[in-house]
Amino acid sequence: MRATGLGDLLDRFQELQLERIAVDTLHEMAGGNGIYTKYPLERLMRDAHSATAHIGFNWDAGMSTWGLVALGGEVVNPTM
Questions:
Q1: Residue 35: helix, strand or coil by DSSP?
Q2: Pairwise pLDDT comparison (20 vs 7), residue with the higher score
Q3: What CA–CA distance (Å, rounded) separates 31 from 28?
Q4: Residue 10 pLDDT
Q5: Which of 34, 57, 61, 69 is a plausible cystine mate for 30, CB 3.0–4.6 Å?
């Protein structure tokens, strides 16, 4: 399903942040065991943090570009 507007993008950004918060909460509950690679939770934590750190889910970068295009501007950023 593709995002069709600002509302859809906002929902996806918020969903990803909520997923990261949920994984962080589980990781805190696991205590010291959560840091060992033999536990799947460790991988979930790394994946959740990696995803939220990705430029594609960076609200400031994404929405400033979206606003520029929505106002008729041209994107010249090579990373987008």
A1: helix
A2: 20
A3: 5
A4: 76
A5: 34
Q: How confident is the model over 16-59, as pLDDT tens digits?
A: 889 999 999 999 999 888 888 888 889 999 999 888 888 777 77
Q: Where are the domains of the chain?
A: 8-63
Q: What are the tokens at 32?
A: 């010291």
Closest CA to 29 of 18, 39, 38, 37: 39
| Whether the Cβ atoms of residue 65 and residue 77 lie closer than 8 Å to each other | yes
Residues belonging to the chain: 80
- Token pair belonging to 34: 């959560």
Alpha carbons 2 and 61: distance in angstroms, whole number: 19
Separation of alpha carbons 50 and 27, rounded Å: 15
